[in-house]
Amino acid sequence: MSAYSILPSSATGWIIYLLITAAWIYLMFYGQKLQSMIWKNQIESFLREIKMVSDSATARLINSIVQHGKPNMDPSQRVKDFMEFFTIEPVDRDPNGVLKRLEYLLDVRENRFDQEMARLAPNASLEEQANLGVAMEAAMALNFIYRYIKHFLIIGTKQNNWMVLMQVAMSLGQIKEIARSYEKAMDAFLEGKPIGDGAGPMVVHALAEGAPMQEIEGTKTVYARKEFEGRTLLMLKAKGPGGRVGKPGEGLQKLVEAEGDKVKLIITVDAALKLEGDNSGEIVEGVGAAIGDPGPEKFKIEEAARARQVPLLAIIVKESMDEAITGMKKEIADAIPAAVEKVKQVIREQTKQGDEIIIAGIGNSIGVA
Q: Alpha-carbon distance 185 to 135, whole Å?
């Protein structure tokens, strides 16, 4: 039996063999360093891209402030200084009263934004100032994404920590998607167009057609009263068409307190993030308060229902994060009539003539009068 050799038999073969061996030895000792360099380059490329997007969003915001607000000073530096405005959550080691403290801090934050927009754009209408406020939020989000990723790039490079670089690089796809959503959101916010998150207010707007809206004091919400097949509907939404979410929990609580035991059903309607594979615009019914709130407003809705032993139902319109914060897409707009019919179906099945029903359209009322 003849022996078989794996070694090359020609000069060219020997050269290829040595090159492969050298590459294998290099990768064995320096492969991780090479991969770290690749990850670092990917992150740096993303940072250059997101920096341009963030600066563009800030510039558009400043231009809109100048155009609509006509301030008597250059607002550029003040806007840039406000980009890193932050809110510190209340201490939760003693949970007693934490929601009240959180609500107080959120109110202070919202008032601070209102004051800043009034100062930056003194000649803009209240609705325009509200739109500029949500546009400021989007620009702040883009600025934060840039600073946050830059922080981990510096940490990973300084400490030669390939694990940090790997985790950031592996997350870039999802982070890019979020950044693009905020970039596109600037268009809707600055132009005052309805966004996907306005599905709830649009359902209420459709149900309340022809009924006058009244503002609920201190809540930045409005409501309308209308008869429907022998029942009385009290329909609540954030005040529009400016970019507001209002305080629907407090508004609903005040309506329940005013109407007392006549209220037999509470329905919250809101947009909800879909799972991958779900269809945008799909309508789903459930139980509970459909509201993406840090806590205070959701608690008030739940407590108002519990105190009067009123059934609390939820109807959601499924959509992605991108669809929620950007201009309302056709799939979501087409779902509004179906959501209205779903609300009517629930009312017919769960109540009887003479009952009062509160319907809260949760979400941002930008572009929804």
A: 8
Q: Answer whether residue 358 shows pLDDT above 90.
A: yes
Closest C-alpha to 286, from 302, 268, 300, 263: 268
**Residue 146, domain extent:** 43-191
Structural domain count of the chain: 2
Question: Token pair 């009952």 is at which residue?
Answer: 355
3-state secondary structure of 241: coil
Strands 263-273 and 231-238: unpaired
Is residue 136 scored above 60 in pLDDT? yes
206 with 337: CB under 8 angstroms? yes
For residues 14 and 6, what is the distance between their CA atoms, to the nearest angstrom? 11
Q: With 80 as the cut, is the pLDDT of residue 26 above it?
A: no
Task: Confirm whether 95 is domain-assigned.
Answer: yes
SS3 content of the chain, % helix, strand, coil (to 5): 60, 15, 25
Same domain, 161 and 214: no
Q: pLDDT tens-digit profile of 107-121?
A: 999 999 999 999 999
| Residue 300 belongs to some domain of the structure | yes
Instruction: Answer yes or no: is 280 within a domain.
Output: yes
Shared-domain flag, residues 205 and 316: yes
Q: pLDDT tens-digit profile of 44-68?
A: 999 999 999 999 999 999 999 999 9
User: Does residue 157 belong to any structural domain of this protein?
Assistant: yes
Q: What is the dihedral of CA 55, 61, 62, 66, to 10 degrees?
A: 160
pTM, two decimal places? 0.87
Which pair of tokens denotes residue 3?
Answer: 């022996």
User: pLDDT tens across 226-241, in order?
Assistant: 999 999 999 999 999 9
CATH number of residue 289's parent domain? 3.40.50.1470
Please identify which residue in the block is written with the tokens 């009322």.
365
| Same-domain status, 156 and 231 | no
- Residue 1 has a pLDDT of 47
- Exposed, middle or buried: residue 363 (CB in 10 Å: 0-12, 13-18, 19+)? buried
